[in-house]
């Protein structure tokens, strides 16, 4: 069973926020989840990031609340370890501006999870920074679809 931590992009639709070109990934994730082929994870950082984005838009409080409940009931929560915070802080000081993505990445590494994302900049930065775990941890959306969409 594959254990996948979702980037916040994939949680936003559950909270009532449309995300461009995400439907196919969500369909594949749902199919894999229902068949028991994957276990899906989220972190408190995902919820924080999503709420931050939602707070800047028109939103339906009821849908957001139902979405948060659904995420918490359906998915597993991954918790960062102390070294997750320290590594994210070190990487941030090396020039990557999105601390939430760094925390998701380091939490993935420290919990032995794959991180599904479409953020090519994150992977490029991690490669340039010498993060040897990045190749084994980060799963780009295109790669995920190639691997699973016909499953």
Which short descriptors sum up this protein?
13% strand, 8 helices, 151 residues, globular, Rossmann fold, five-stranded parallel beta sheet, alpha/beta
How does this structure look, described?
With 151 residues, the chain is α/β, with parallel strands linked by helices. The protein has one domain (2-148): Rossmann fold (3-Layer(aba) Sandwich), CATH 3.40.50. Helix content is 55%, strand content 13%. It has 8 helices and 5 strands, in the order βαβααβααβααβα. Strands 3-2-1-4-5 form a 5-stranded parallel sheet, with helices on both faces. Strand 1 (2-6), helix 1 (23-35) and strand 2 (38-42) form a beta-alpha-beta unit. Helix 1 crosses helix 8 and helix 4 (82-93) packs across helix 5 (99-110). It is globular and about 40 Å long. The protein starts with a strand and ends with a helix. The model has no long low-confidence stretch (mean pLDDT 95).
List the SSEs and their pairings.
Elements: E1 2-6, H1 23-35, E2 38-42, H2 44-54, H3 61-74, E3 76-77, H4 82-93, H5 99-110, E4 114-117, H6 120-128, H7 134-137, E5 138-140, H8 141-148
Parallel strand pairs: 1-2, 1-4, 2-3, 4-5
Helix pairs in contact: 1-8, 4-5
């Amino acid at each position: 069973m594959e254990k996948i931590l979702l980037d916040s992009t994939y949680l936003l639709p559950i909270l009532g926020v449309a995300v461009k070109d995400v439907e196919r990934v969500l369909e594949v994730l749902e199919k894999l989840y229902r068949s028991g082929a994957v276990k899906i994870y989220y972190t408190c950082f995902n919820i924080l990031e999503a709420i931050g984005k939602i707070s800047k838009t028109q939103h339906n409080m009821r849908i957001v609340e139902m979405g948060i409940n659904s995420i918490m009931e359906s998915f597993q929560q991954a918790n960062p370890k102390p070294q997750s915070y320290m590594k994210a802080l070190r990487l941030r000081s090396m020039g990557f501006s999105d601390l939430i993505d760094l925390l998701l990445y380091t939490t993935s590494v420290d919990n032995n999870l794959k991180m599904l994302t479409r953020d090519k900049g994150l992977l490029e930065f991690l490669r340039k920074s010498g993060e040897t775990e990045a190749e084994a941890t980060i799963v780009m959306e295109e790669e995920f679809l190639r691997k699973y969409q016909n499953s």
